[in-house]
Design goal:
Chain A has 239 residues and is an alpha/beta fold. Chain A is built from 8 helices and 9 strands. In chain A, 32% of the residues lie in helices and 25% in strands. In chain B, 72% of the residues lie in helices and 0% in strands. Chain B contains 11 helices and no strands. The chains are: A alpha/beta (239), B mainly alpha (260).
């Protein structure tokens, strides 16, 4: 059940602008790692490179020592959720998950299982375009869980969830890590990360400004919020 | 993960989009409807003793209806790729299907090849239904007054099917470049129905016969082609296939390098 996500000296440029500079961190099994930073700090870019969607200009992002693009049935190793549901709006939730399952040789019975698991059991036949934001997030999570992966990579997973949904995902991710899985999630919401994460990677302007167990990163500051603003150089009213 | 899994997933994905159903309906019903109108015209001309007023036979009534089926083939090719880039509204978190597709199947060449196979299969099924059905319909309407069928109906039928497949693949490749279905649909549909740029160019230069649509048309058009220097059917097919292969190769190179 060991599965490490490692990002090493990642550099990414868009045009002449460097949006990631020497980003290095690890997400280890049995722990929830929170990638925390203001909007535009480079969280999504880092995750997209880790998932083989975008190319880095330098550095490596590896899943158990190999690039994501080399994984044979990636959905069975890493479950991921980027912005929204990742489904075409004129598909039903069930249809979306079914083609995904087919692509990775995942038994189709998993589709109904994950729909029930995320609380969309009754909405499987509804077109994604009719979903609410919260339902789309749940569908994105269902897609991530589809292949029973050892690692979960989630970009802003609590976005759009109601308090009950946030509590539910916290329990889910905790359970995944406690069972030996690896969880890497990004967020710009400090309170959420504070309650979910074991390890913290704070990123600002494309650079990692602090990383380590959450208590170490926040040591010397009264709260995570104080640590965050001090580390990222953001001003409290500036976001 | 095998290529077969990727093809199975892509086929299911494309075949279950509502736009695909519309495209298949156009590919099948469009030529049947035009054939019907043409065939009635042929029958009337034959009965009035003025066959020069219409297409000369039921067979020509069918093959002059091929361009309308091309519209469906274009839409199929465009939808297979364009659907990946359709953005969801910000209200539901935004996002596009392409991220799901490429995290599920990181092999980009595999994804593109599977899409090409899917599009060819769908067009082939449509062609196998619509061309025999149109020939039967035209034959039935014109009836016993029809002149003897010209040579080469089978090869022209196959040619029309291949023309649709290659057109769909060209549409697919172009949509990889644009990452949006609207522009390729408008340009390609207008070009294959209302105003053919290639036909216009053919009035300026004989080189226009080497353009993909005009070259490919010679596979099925027979004497219908209003163009003096038309290529022979097999040559025309090979020219169009070369264009298709070139565009697909270029699309693959772009798709491989580009950030999703």
């Amino acid at each position: 059940m060991v599965l490490m996500l490692s990002v090493e000296r990642l550099v990414k440029r868009r045009g002449s602008r460097e949006i990631l500079t020497d980003v290095t961190f690890r997400a280890t099994p049995g722990r929830v790692t929170g990638l925390l930073g203001p909007n535009g700090a480079g969280k999504s870019s880092t995750l997209r490179i880790l998932l083989g969607l975008d190319r880095a200009d330098a550095g490596t992002a590896l899943v158990d020592g190999q690039p994501y693009r080399r994984l044979r049935q990636p959905l069975r190793t890493v479950g991921s959720m980027l912005d929204g549901s990742g489904a075409h709006r004129s598909r039903t939730a069930r249809n979306h998950l079914t083609w995904m399952a087919r692509s990775n040789g995942i038994p189709v019975r998993r589709v109904a299982e994950v729909l029930d698991q995320v609380g969309l059991g009754a909405a499987g036949g509804t077109r994604v375009g009719r979903f609410s934001l919260g339902m789309c997030q749940r569908l994105g999570l269902a897609a991530a869980l589809l292949g029973e992966p050892r690692a979960l990579v989630l970009d802003e997973p609590v976005n759009g969830l109601d308090p009950e949904g946030i509590r539910w995902i916290r329990v889910l991710l905790r359970g995944h890590a406690d069972a030996g899985g690896t969880v890497l999630l990004s967020s710009h919401l400090m309170t959420e990360v504070d309650e979910i994460a074991d390890d913290l990677v704070v990123i600002a302007h494309g650079r990692v400004v602090a990383a380590g167990p959450i208590r170490e990163v926040t040591a010397g500051y009264p709260t995570l919020e104080d640590a965050f603003f001090a580390l990222t150089g953001a001003t409290a009213g500036g976001r | 993960m095998t290529f077969f899994d990727t093809v199975a997933a892509e086929t299911r994905k494309t075949a279950t989009l509502p736009a695909t159903a519309v495209a298949l309906a156009v590919t099948v019903l469009g030529p049947v409807a035009i054939t019907l109108i043409n065939a009635v015209g042929v029958r009337a001309a034959l009965r009035s003793g003025r066959p020069e007023l219409a297409y000369t036979s039921p067979v020509e009534a069918v093959f002059s209806a091929v361009p309308i089926g091309t519209v469906g083939a274009v839409v199929l090719g465009v939808v297979a790729v364009g659907g990946e880039y359709t953005a969801n509204s910000a209200r539901i978190g935004g996002g596009r299907q392409i991220t799901t597709t490429l995290t599920a199947t990181p092999s980009r060449l595999g994804v593109l090849a599977a899409k090409a196979v899917t599009v060819v299969l769908l067009v082939a099924v449509a062609a196998l239904v619509v061309i025999p059905a149109s020939l039967a319909l035209a034959g039935g309407i014109v009836g016993t007054e029809a002149p003897p069928a010209p040579e080469g109906v089978l090869s022209r039928s196959v040619g029309a099917g291949i023309y649709w497949m290659l057109t769909a693949l060209i549409a697919l490749a172009i949509t990889v470049f644009t990452r949006n279905g609207i522009v390729p649909i408008i340009v390609l549909v207008v070009n294959s129905t209302l105003v053919s740029v290639s036909v216009l160019l053919s009035h300026l230069t004989p080189l226009a016969r080497f353009l993909p649509d005009l070259a490919g048309t010679s596979m099925f058009a027979g004497d219908l082609l209003a163009f003096d220097d038309a290529l022979a059917p097999v040559t025309g097919g090979l020219v169009m296939a070369t264009w298709t292969a070139g565009l697909l190769a270029l699309a693959s190179a772009v798709f491989l390098r580009r950030d999703a």
